[in-house]
Amino acid sequence: MYYEAIVIGVSSGGMKALKFLSSSLPIHFSIPIIIVQHLSSKSDSHWIHLLNEKSQLNVKEVDEKEKITKGYIYIAPPNYHLMIEKDQTFSLTIDERVNFARPSIDVLFESAAEVFKNKLIGIVLTGSNSDGTNGIIRIKKYGGLAIIQDPTTAESEYMPKSAIAAIIPDHVLSLEKIIELLLKIDHKNK
Amino acid sequence: MRNKETSDLEISLLLEAIFQKYGYDFREYSQAHIRRRIMNRMAVSQFEDIAEIQSKVLNDATFASEILQDLSITVTEMFRDPLFYRSLRENVIPILKTYPFIKIWHAGCATGEEAYSMAILLQEEGLYERTTIYATDFNQMALNRAKDGIFSNKMIKEYTSNYQLAGGKESFSNYYTSNYDNVIMNQSLKKNIVWANHNLVTDSVFAEVNLILCRNVLIYFDKNLQNKVQTLFYNSLINGGILCLGSKESLRFSDLYAHYIELDTKQRIFKKKY
Ligand SMILES: C[S@@+](CC[C@H](N)C(=O)[O-])C[C@H]1O[C@@H](n2cnc3c(N)ncnc32)[C@H](O)[C@@H]1O
User: Fold this and answer.
1) What is the number of structural domains in chain B?
2) Residue B77 domain-assigned?
3) Can you give the residue range of the structural domain that contains B254?
4) pLDDT at B228 exceeding the cut of 90
Protein backbone atom coordinates (compact mmCIF):
# COMPACT_ATOMS: atom_id res chain seq x y z
CA MET A 1 0.00 0.00 0.00
CA TYR A 2 1.40 3.35 -0.96
CA TYR A 3 -0.83 6.14 0.35
CA GLU A 4 -1.61 5.63 4.01
CA ALA A 5 -4.06 8.42 4.68
CA ILE A 6 -6.07 11.27 3.21
CA VAL A 7 -6.57 14.49 5.18
CA ILE A 8 -9.25 16.94 4.14
CA GLY A 9 -9.85 20.52 5.25
CA VAL A 10 -13.17 22.19 4.63
CA SER A 11 -14.95 25.24 5.98
CA SER A 12 -17.95 27.29 4.91
CA GLY A 13 -20.03 25.51 2.33
CA GLY A 14 -18.49 22.27 3.44
CA MET A 15 -21.52 20.32 4.52
CA LYS A 16 -22.68 19.75 0.97
CA ALA A 17 -19.20 18.77 -0.16
CA LEU A 18 -18.82 16.28 2.68
CA LYS A 19 -22.22 14.77 1.99
CA PHE A 20 -21.23 14.27 -1.62
CA LEU A 21 -17.83 12.85 -0.77
CA SER A 22 -18.96 10.42 1.91
CA SER A 23 -21.86 9.11 -0.14
CA SER A 24 -19.75 8.65 -3.29
CA LEU A 25 -16.92 6.49 -2.00
CA PRO A 26 -17.41 2.72 -2.30
CA ILE A 27 -17.28 0.21 0.53
CA HIS A 28 -13.89 -1.17 -0.54
CA PHE A 29 -12.19 2.23 -0.51
CA SER A 30 -9.07 1.43 1.45
CA ILE A 31 -7.39 4.67 2.42
CA PRO A 32 -8.53 6.12 5.74
CA ILE A 33 -9.88 9.67 5.51
CA ILE A 34 -9.49 12.28 8.22
CA ILE A 35 -11.48 15.49 8.05
CA VAL A 36 -11.41 18.85 9.79
CA GLN A 37 -14.61 20.79 9.19
CA HIS A 38 -14.98 24.21 10.82
CA LEU A 39 -18.11 24.27 12.94
CA SER A 40 -19.40 26.16 15.94
CA SER A 41 -17.81 24.94 19.15
CA LYS A 42 -21.19 23.81 20.48
CA SER A 43 -22.44 21.88 17.49
CA ASP A 44 -23.48 18.30 18.19
CA SER A 45 -22.61 15.21 16.21
CA HIS A 46 -26.01 14.62 14.67
CA TRP A 47 -24.80 15.51 11.18
CA ILE A 48 -22.10 12.85 11.46
CA HIS A 49 -24.76 10.19 12.01
CA LEU A 50 -26.56 11.45 8.94
CA LEU A 51 -23.40 11.22 6.86
CA ASN A 52 -22.79 7.75 8.20
CA GLU A 53 -26.25 6.56 7.21
CA LYS A 54 -25.68 7.68 3.66
CA SER A 55 -22.14 6.32 3.35
CA GLN A 56 -20.82 2.86 2.60
CA LEU A 57 -17.84 3.68 4.76
CA ASN A 58 -17.97 4.21 8.52
CA VAL A 59 -18.21 7.92 9.27
CA LYS A 60 -17.46 8.75 12.89
CA GLU A 61 -16.24 11.45 15.21
CA VAL A 62 -12.69 10.79 16.38
CA ASP A 63 -12.16 9.23 19.78
CA GLU A 64 -9.05 10.21 21.62
CA LYS A 65 -6.22 7.62 21.19
CA GLU A 66 -8.20 5.72 18.58
CA LYS A 67 -6.11 3.86 16.00
CA ILE A 68 -6.49 4.95 12.37
CA THR A 69 -8.14 2.14 10.41
CA LYS A 70 -9.13 1.69 6.77
CA GLY A 71 -12.78 1.82 5.90
CA TYR A 72 -13.30 4.84 8.11
CA ILE A 73 -13.95 8.52 7.57
CA TYR A 74 -12.93 10.32 10.74
CA ILE A 75 -14.23 13.76 11.70
CA ALA A 76 -12.52 16.05 14.23
CA PRO A 77 -14.77 16.89 17.20
CA PRO A 78 -15.78 20.54 17.63
CA ASN A 79 -13.63 22.70 19.91
CA TYR A 80 -10.58 20.37 19.87
CA HIS A 81 -7.55 20.34 17.63
CA LEU A 82 -6.90 16.96 16.05
CA MET A 83 -3.38 15.58 15.73
CA ILE A 84 -1.83 12.29 14.67
CA GLU A 85 0.80 10.39 16.62
CA LYS A 86 3.66 8.36 15.17
CA ASP A 87 1.85 5.14 16.11
CA GLN A 88 -1.08 6.31 13.93
CA THR A 89 -3.42 7.04 16.79
CA PHE A 90 -5.31 10.30 17.30
CA SER A 91 -4.65 12.97 19.91
CA LEU A 92 -6.98 15.82 20.79
CA THR A 93 -5.90 19.10 22.38
CA ILE A 94 -7.55 22.36 23.36
CA ASP A 95 -4.66 24.64 22.52
CA GLU A 96 -5.44 28.18 21.38
CA ARG A 97 -7.34 28.59 18.16
CA VAL A 98 -5.26 28.66 14.98
CA ASN A 99 -6.57 30.90 12.18
CA PHE A 100 -9.52 31.58 14.51
CA ALA A 101 -10.38 27.91 14.27
CA ARG A 102 -10.47 24.93 16.61
CA PRO A 103 -10.18 22.36 15.14
CA SER A 104 -7.72 23.90 12.72
CA ILE A 105 -6.92 22.35 9.35
CA ASP A 106 -3.29 23.47 9.63
CA VAL A 107 -2.83 21.63 12.92
CA LEU A 108 -4.15 18.36 11.47
CA PHE A 109 -2.25 18.69 8.19
CA GLU A 110 1.06 19.54 9.85
CA SER A 111 0.94 16.65 12.28
CA ALA A 112 -0.25 14.24 9.57
CA ALA A 113 2.65 15.30 7.33
CA GLU A 114 5.14 14.54 10.12
CA VAL A 115 3.73 11.02 10.43
CA PHE A 116 2.85 9.96 6.90
CA LYS A 117 5.45 12.02 5.00
CA ASN A 118 5.09 11.32 1.25
CA LYS A 119 2.39 8.73 1.84
CA LEU A 120 -0.19 11.38 2.55
CA ILE A 121 -2.82 13.02 0.38
CA GLY A 122 -3.96 16.49 1.45
CA ILE A 123 -7.17 17.97 0.09
CA VAL A 124 -8.34 21.56 0.53
CA LEU A 125 -12.01 22.16 -0.24
CA THR A 126 -14.39 25.12 -0.09
CA GLY A 127 -13.94 27.71 2.67
CA SER A 128 -13.75 31.40 3.39
CA ASN A 129 -10.48 31.72 5.30
CA SER A 130 -6.89 30.65 4.83
CA ASP A 131 -6.76 27.75 7.27
CA GLY A 132 -5.14 24.78 5.54
CA THR A 133 -2.60 26.79 3.59
CA ASN A 134 0.30 26.30 5.98
CA GLY A 135 -0.72 22.69 6.34
CA ILE A 136 -0.69 21.97 2.63
CA ILE A 137 2.72 23.66 2.38
CA ARG A 138 3.99 21.20 4.97
CA ILE A 139 2.43 18.23 3.18
CA LYS A 140 4.16 19.24 -0.07
CA LYS A 141 7.43 19.75 1.76
CA TYR A 142 7.33 16.12 2.84
CA GLY A 143 6.50 14.96 -0.67
CA GLY A 144 2.80 14.30 -0.17
CA LEU A 145 0.13 14.80 -2.81
CA ALA A 146 -1.80 18.11 -2.82
CA ILE A 147 -5.29 18.22 -4.29
CA ILE A 148 -7.21 21.49 -4.27
CA GLN A 149 -10.83 22.00 -5.16
CA ASP A 150 -11.11 24.13 -8.28
CA PRO A 151 -12.06 27.52 -6.77
CA THR A 152 -14.51 28.21 -9.60
CA THR A 153 -16.47 25.14 -8.49
CA ALA A 154 -16.26 25.79 -4.74
CA GLU A 155 -19.09 27.42 -2.80
CA SER A 156 -16.45 29.59 -1.18
CA GLU A 157 -13.35 30.15 -3.24
CA TYR A 158 -11.10 31.81 -0.67
CA MET A 159 -9.63 28.75 1.00
CA PRO A 160 -8.73 26.82 -2.18
CA LYS A 161 -7.36 30.01 -3.75
CA SER A 162 -5.19 30.67 -0.75
CA ALA A 163 -3.77 27.15 -0.95
CA ILE A 164 -3.13 27.40 -4.69
CA ALA A 165 -1.26 30.67 -4.19
CA ALA A 166 1.10 29.03 -1.72
CA ILE A 167 2.11 25.80 -3.44
CA ILE A 168 2.21 24.14 -6.81
CA PRO A 169 -0.73 21.78 -6.42
CA ASP A 170 -0.67 18.35 -7.99
CA HIS A 171 -4.32 18.64 -8.97
CA VAL A 172 -6.92 21.39 -9.10
CA LEU A 173 -10.26 19.73 -9.70
CA SER A 174 -13.98 19.84 -9.17
CA LEU A 175 -15.38 17.66 -6.41
CA GLU A 176 -16.60 15.05 -8.92
CA LYS A 177 -13.14 14.83 -10.47
CA ILE A 178 -11.49 14.64 -7.07
CA ILE A 179 -13.55 11.57 -6.30
CA GLU A 180 -12.66 9.99 -9.64
CA LEU A 181 -9.01 10.63 -8.91
CA LEU A 182 -9.24 9.15 -5.41
CA LEU A 183 -10.85 6.02 -6.81
CA LYS A 184 -8.05 5.69 -9.33
CA ILE A 185 -5.39 6.19 -6.67
CA ASP A 186 -7.07 3.71 -4.39
CA HIS A 187 -7.20 1.16 -7.16
CA LYS A 188 -3.46 1.44 -7.77
CA ASN A 189 -2.80 1.54 -4.08
CA LYS A 190 -3.83 -2.05 -3.42
CA MET B 1 12.79 27.17 6.13
CA ARG B 2 15.18 25.01 8.13
CA ASN B 3 16.46 22.10 6.15
CA LYS B 4 17.36 20.04 9.14
CA GLU B 5 14.46 17.97 10.34
CA THR B 6 13.92 17.77 14.07
CA SER B 7 14.02 14.13 15.01
CA ASP B 8 12.07 12.33 17.70
CA LEU B 9 15.34 11.49 19.32
CA GLU B 10 16.29 15.16 19.70
CA ILE B 11 12.93 15.93 21.26
CA SER B 12 13.15 13.07 23.70
CA LEU B 13 16.65 14.17 24.70
CA LEU B 14 15.32 17.66 25.38
CA LEU B 15 12.53 16.23 27.55
CA GLU B 16 15.07 14.10 29.38
CA ALA B 17 17.19 17.19 30.03
CA ILE B 18 14.20 19.13 31.38
CA PHE B 19 13.33 16.24 33.65
CA GLN B 20 16.88 15.75 34.96
CA LYS B 21 17.44 19.41 35.60
CA TYR B 22 14.04 20.67 36.76
CA GLY B 23 12.04 17.56 37.69
CA TYR B 24 9.20 18.28 35.26
CA ASP B 25 8.40 15.07 33.47
CA PHE B 26 6.97 15.41 29.96
CA ARG B 27 8.42 12.15 28.70
CA GLU B 28 5.06 10.40 28.49
CA TYR B 29 3.05 13.28 27.06
CA SER B 30 1.51 13.14 23.60
CA GLN B 31 4.45 13.37 21.22
CA ALA B 32 2.48 15.21 18.57
CA HIS B 33 1.54 17.87 21.15
CA ILE B 34 5.09 18.26 22.45
CA ARG B 35 6.51 18.43 18.94
CA ARG B 36 4.05 21.09 17.89
CA ARG B 37 4.78 23.27 20.92
CA ILE B 38 8.56 22.91 20.55
CA MET B 39 8.41 23.70 16.84
CA ASN B 40 6.31 26.79 17.61
CA ARG B 41 8.88 27.90 20.15
CA MET B 42 11.69 27.37 17.67
CA ALA B 43 9.88 29.50 15.13
CA VAL B 44 8.96 32.28 17.58
CA SER B 45 12.41 32.52 19.18
CA GLN B 46 14.17 31.85 15.86
CA PHE B 47 16.28 28.93 17.03
CA GLU B 48 18.40 27.15 14.45
CA ASP B 49 17.91 23.73 15.91
CA ILE B 50 16.82 21.90 18.99
CA ALA B 51 20.33 21.66 20.40
CA GLU B 52 20.16 25.41 20.85
CA ILE B 53 16.95 25.11 22.88
CA GLN B 54 18.50 22.35 24.93
CA SER B 55 21.55 24.32 25.97
CA LYS B 56 19.47 27.42 26.71
CA VAL B 57 17.05 25.39 28.84
CA LEU B 58 19.92 23.98 30.85
CA ASN B 59 21.62 27.32 31.43
CA ASP B 60 18.77 29.77 31.74
CA ALA B 61 16.06 29.13 34.34
CA THR B 62 13.90 31.97 33.04
CA PHE B 63 13.88 30.44 29.60
CA ALA B 64 13.17 27.03 31.10
CA SER B 65 10.05 28.38 32.75
CA GLU B 66 8.95 29.78 29.39
CA ILE B 67 9.28 26.30 27.94
CA LEU B 68 7.17 24.94 30.78
CA GLN B 69 4.51 27.50 29.87
CA ASP B 70 4.76 26.38 26.24
CA LEU B 71 4.10 22.80 27.23
CA SER B 72 1.24 23.55 29.60
CA ILE B 73 -1.95 24.52 27.82
CA THR B 74 -4.18 26.52 30.12
CA VAL B 75 -7.08 27.19 27.76
CA THR B 76 -10.27 26.93 29.83
CA GLU B 77 -13.73 28.41 30.33
CA MET B 78 -16.39 28.97 32.96
CA PHE B 79 -19.06 26.29 32.72
CA ARG B 80 -17.26 24.74 29.79
CA ASP B 81 -19.62 22.10 28.34
CA PRO B 82 -22.79 23.41 30.04
CA LEU B 83 -24.54 20.06 29.75
CA PHE B 84 -21.84 18.51 31.88
CA TYR B 85 -22.66 20.95 34.70
CA ARG B 86 -26.33 20.27 34.25
CA SER B 87 -25.60 16.58 34.71
CA LEU B 88 -23.53 17.38 37.80
CA ARG B 89 -26.58 19.09 39.30
CA GLU B 90 -28.86 16.22 38.45
CA ASN B 91 -26.69 13.19 39.07
CA VAL B 92 -23.87 14.15 41.42
CA ILE B 93 -25.24 16.83 43.75
CA PRO B 94 -27.82 14.42 45.26
CA ILE B 95 -24.96 12.05 46.13
CA LEU B 96 -22.85 14.84 47.63
CA LYS B 97 -25.81 15.95 49.74
CA THR B 98 -25.56 12.70 51.69
CA TYR B 99 -22.16 13.67 53.16
CA PRO B 100 -21.63 16.00 56.14
CA PHE B 101 -18.34 17.27 54.71
CA ILE B 102 -17.35 17.28 51.07
CA LYS B 103 -13.92 17.34 49.48
CA ILE B 104 -13.56 18.10 45.79
CA TRP B 105 -10.36 17.95 43.77
CA HIS B 106 -9.95 19.85 40.51
CA ALA B 107 -6.83 18.30 39.00
CA GLY B 108 -5.34 20.54 36.30
CA CYS B 109 -7.46 23.58 37.19
CA ALA B 110 -5.47 25.96 34.95
CA THR B 111 -6.54 29.56 35.67
CA GLY B 112 -9.40 28.48 37.90
CA GLU B 113 -12.54 29.02 35.82
CA GLU B 114 -13.67 25.43 36.41
CA ALA B 115 -13.25 25.69 40.19
CA TYR B 116 -15.17 28.99 40.30
CA SER B 117 -17.94 27.39 38.25
CA MET B 118 -18.09 24.59 40.80
CA ALA B 119 -18.19 27.07 43.69
CA ILE B 120 -21.13 28.84 42.09
CA LEU B 121 -22.98 25.59 41.53
CA LEU B 122 -22.37 24.48 45.12
CA GLN B 123 -23.58 27.80 46.51
CA GLU B 124 -26.78 27.48 44.54
CA GLU B 125 -27.26 23.93 45.75
CA GLY B 126 -26.61 24.94 49.38
CA LEU B 127 -23.49 22.78 49.68
CA TYR B 128 -20.67 25.28 49.52
CA GLU B 129 -20.39 25.87 53.25
CA ARG B 130 -19.55 22.25 53.95
CA THR B 131 -17.19 21.83 51.01
CA THR B 132 -13.46 22.24 50.53
CA ILE B 133 -12.34 22.56 46.93
CA TYR B 134 -8.72 21.64 46.24
CA ALA B 135 -7.77 23.17 42.92
CA THR B 136 -4.37 22.04 41.73
CA ASP B 137 -2.10 22.50 38.76
CA PHE B 138 1.63 22.22 38.13
CA ASN B 139 1.68 25.58 36.43
CA GLN B 140 2.33 28.15 39.17
CA MET B 141 1.65 31.11 36.91
CA ALA B 142 -1.79 29.76 36.10
CA LEU B 143 -2.44 29.08 39.79
CA ASN B 144 -1.53 32.66 40.71
CA ARG B 145 -4.04 33.96 38.21
CA ALA B 146 -6.63 31.52 39.51
CA LYS B 147 -6.10 32.83 43.03
CA ASP B 148 -6.64 36.41 41.87
CA GLY B 149 -9.91 35.43 40.26
CA ILE B 150 -9.75 38.28 37.76
CA PHE B 151 -10.92 37.46 34.25
CA SER B 152 -11.26 39.41 31.04
CA ASN B 153 -14.78 40.69 30.49
CA LYS B 154 -14.47 39.80 26.81
CA MET B 155 -15.53 36.30 27.75
CA ILE B 156 -18.43 37.24 30.01
CA LYS B 157 -21.09 37.06 27.34
CA GLU B 158 -20.13 33.52 26.51
CA TYR B 159 -19.79 32.54 30.18
CA THR B 160 -23.21 33.98 30.94
CA SER B 161 -24.71 31.89 28.19
CA ASN B 162 -22.81 28.80 29.40
CA TYR B 163 -24.04 29.45 32.94
CA GLN B 164 -27.64 29.64 31.82
CA LEU B 165 -27.37 26.51 29.67
CA ALA B 166 -25.82 24.79 32.68
CA GLY B 167 -29.01 25.37 34.65
CA GLY B 168 -27.85 28.43 36.61
CA LYS B 169 -30.47 29.69 39.03
CA GLU B 170 -29.43 33.32 39.45
CA SER B 171 -28.13 36.07 37.28
CA PHE B 172 -24.50 35.31 36.45
CA SER B 173 -23.56 38.93 37.14
CA ASN B 174 -24.31 38.32 40.85
CA TYR B 175 -21.05 36.42 41.09
CA TYR B 176 -18.58 39.09 40.07
CA THR B 177 -17.96 42.82 40.05
CA SER B 178 -16.84 44.61 36.92
CA ASN B 179 -13.71 46.65 36.90
CA TYR B 180 -12.72 48.29 33.59
CA ASP B 181 -11.84 45.45 31.21
CA ASN B 182 -12.06 42.80 33.87
CA VAL B 183 -14.40 41.08 36.23
CA ILE B 184 -13.43 40.10 39.75
CA MET B 185 -14.99 36.98 41.17
CA ASN B 186 -16.76 37.37 44.53
CA GLN B 187 -14.75 36.77 47.66
CA SER B 188 -17.46 34.45 48.94
CA LEU B 189 -16.67 32.03 46.10
CA LYS B 190 -13.00 31.90 47.00
CA LYS B 191 -13.15 31.25 50.70
CA ASN B 192 -13.35 27.44 50.56
CA ILE B 193 -11.01 26.98 47.61
CA VAL B 194 -7.47 25.83 48.39
CA TRP B 195 -5.10 26.48 45.45
CA ALA B 196 -2.11 24.17 45.44
CA ASN B 197 0.78 23.21 43.22
CA HIS B 198 0.57 19.52 42.41
CA ASN B 199 2.09 17.57 39.54
CA LEU B 200 0.00 14.60 38.45
CA VAL B 201 3.02 12.82 37.04
CA THR B 202 5.46 13.14 39.90
CA ASP B 203 3.43 13.92 43.04
CA SER B 204 1.49 11.39 45.06
CA VAL B 205 -2.07 10.68 46.15
CA PHE B 206 -3.78 13.89 47.11
CA ALA B 207 -6.43 13.29 49.77
CA GLU B 208 -9.52 11.22 50.43
CA VAL B 209 -11.95 13.06 48.22
CA ASN B 210 -15.61 12.67 47.28
CA LEU B 211 -15.33 14.08 43.79
CA ILE B 212 -12.50 14.51 41.30
CA LEU B 213 -12.72 16.62 38.18
CA CYS B 214 -9.87 16.16 35.76
CA ARG B 215 -11.03 17.58 32.49
CA ASN B 216 -8.96 18.07 29.36
CA VAL B 217 -5.71 17.19 31.05
CA LEU B 218 -5.40 13.49 30.24
CA ILE B 219 -5.75 14.17 26.51
CA TYR B 220 -2.20 15.50 26.66
CA PHE B 221 -0.83 12.24 28.10
CA ASP B 222 0.01 9.00 26.34
CA LYS B 223 -1.94 5.85 27.20
CA ASN B 224 0.57 4.61 29.70
CA LEU B 225 0.65 7.86 31.65
CA GLN B 226 -3.14 8.08 31.50
CA ASN B 227 -3.29 4.72 33.21
CA LYS B 228 -0.87 5.80 35.93
CA VAL B 229 -2.83 8.95 36.65
CA GLN B 230 -6.08 6.99 36.68
CA THR B 231 -4.57 4.85 39.42
CA LEU B 232 -3.74 7.99 41.35
CA PHE B 233 -7.34 9.14 41.04
CA TYR B 234 -8.70 5.76 42.01
CA ASN B 235 -6.58 5.78 45.16
CA SER B 236 -7.60 9.33 46.01
CA LEU B 237 -11.34 8.70 45.80
CA ILE B 238 -13.44 7.35 48.65
CA ASN B 239 -15.60 4.34 47.83
CA GLY B 240 -18.64 5.62 46.01
CA GLY B 241 -16.68 8.73 45.01
CA ILE B 242 -17.19 10.40 41.65
CA LEU B 243 -14.75 10.93 38.79
CA CYS B 244 -15.45 13.44 36.02
CA LEU B 245 -13.42 13.53 32.82
CA GLY B 246 -13.46 15.87 29.84
CA SER B 247 -16.13 15.38 27.22
CA LYS B 248 -13.72 13.61 24.86
CA GLU B 249 -11.87 11.59 27.48
CA SER B 250 -12.57 7.98 28.21
CA LEU B 251 -12.02 5.46 30.96
CA ARG B 252 -12.76 2.63 28.60
CA PHE B 253 -9.13 1.98 27.71
CA SER B 254 -8.07 2.16 31.33
CA ASP B 255 -7.36 -0.90 33.42
CA LEU B 256 -9.63 0.57 36.07
CA TYR B 257 -12.75 0.80 33.92
CA ALA B 258 -14.27 -2.24 35.59
CA HIS B 259 -14.00 -0.57 38.99
CA TYR B 260 -16.39 2.23 38.12
CA ILE B 261 -20.06 2.53 37.25
CA GLU B 262 -20.99 5.00 34.50
CA LEU B 263 -23.34 7.61 35.98
CA ASP B 264 -23.56 9.59 32.76
CA THR B 265 -21.83 8.03 29.78
CA LYS B 266 -22.08 11.05 27.50
CA GLN B 267 -20.85 13.54 30.10
CA ARG B 268 -18.12 11.15 31.28
CA ILE B 269 -19.17 10.90 34.92
CA PHE B 270 -18.13 7.75 36.79
CA LYS B 271 -18.73 6.39 40.26
CA LYS B 272 -16.16 4.28 42.04
CA LYS B 273 -17.63 0.94 43.08
CA TYR B 274 -17.83 0.01 46.75
C1 LIG C 1 -6.44 22.53 29.01
S2 LIG C 1 -6.24 22.84 30.71
C3 LIG C 1 -7.74 22.22 31.39
C4 LIG C 1 -8.44 23.20 32.30
C5 LIG C 1 -9.78 22.78 32.82
N6 LIG C 1 -9.73 21.55 33.58
C7 LIG C 1 -10.80 22.69 31.69
O8 LIG C 1 -11.16 21.58 31.30
O9 LIG C 1 -11.22 23.72 31.19
C10 LIG C 1 -4.99 21.64 31.14
C11 LIG C 1 -4.28 21.93 32.43
O12 LIG C 1 -3.59 20.77 32.86
C13 LIG C 1 -2.40 21.16 33.48
N14 LIG C 1 -1.46 20.06 33.52
C15 LIG C 1 -0.79 19.48 32.50
N16 LIG C 1 0.03 18.53 32.96
C17 LIG C 1 -0.09 18.51 34.31
C18 LIG C 1 0.52 17.76 35.35
N19 LIG C 1 1.44 16.85 35.08
N20 LIG C 1 0.14 18.00 36.62
C21 LIG C 1 -0.79 18.95 36.90
N22 LIG C 1 -1.39 19.70 35.97
C23 LIG C 1 -1.04 19.48 34.68
C24 LIG C 1 -1.93 22.32 32.64
O25 LIG C 1 -1.02 23.14 33.34
C26 LIG C 1 -3.24 23.02 32.31
O27 LIG C 1 -3.51 24.05 33.23
Assistant:
1) 2
2) no
3) 82-272
4) yes
Pocket of ligand 1 (CB under 6 A): A 94; B 72-77, 80, 108-110, 114, 137-139, 142, 199-201, 215-217, 220, 246
Q: What is the pLDDT of residues A2-17, one digit of tens each?
A: 999 999 999 988 999 9
Q: Does A12 touch chain B (CB under 8 A)?
A: no
Cβ <8 Å between B32 and A114: yes
The enclosing domain of A74 has a CATH number of: 3.40.50.180
> Average pLDDT, stretch B152-177?
96
Of A84, A91, A94, the CB nearest to B216: A94
- Tell whether A67 lies on the interface with B, counting CB pairs under 8 A: no
Instruction: Give the pLDDT confidence of B47-101 residue by residue, as tens digits.
Output: 988 989 999 999 999 999 999 999 999 999 999 999 999 999 999 999 999 999 9
pTM: 0.95
- Give the separation between CA A69 and CA A32, rounded to whole angstroms: 6
Residue closest to A82 by CA, chosen among A52, A62, A99: A62
Edge to edge, the sheet with strand B102-107 lists B193-197, B131-137, B102-107, B209-214, B237-245, B269-272, B260-264
Write the ipTM. Answer: 0.93
Cβ separation A91–B32 shorter than 8 A: yes
- Set of chain B residues whose Cβ sits within 8 Å of the Cβ of A140: none
The pLDDT score that the predictor gives to residue B78 is 97
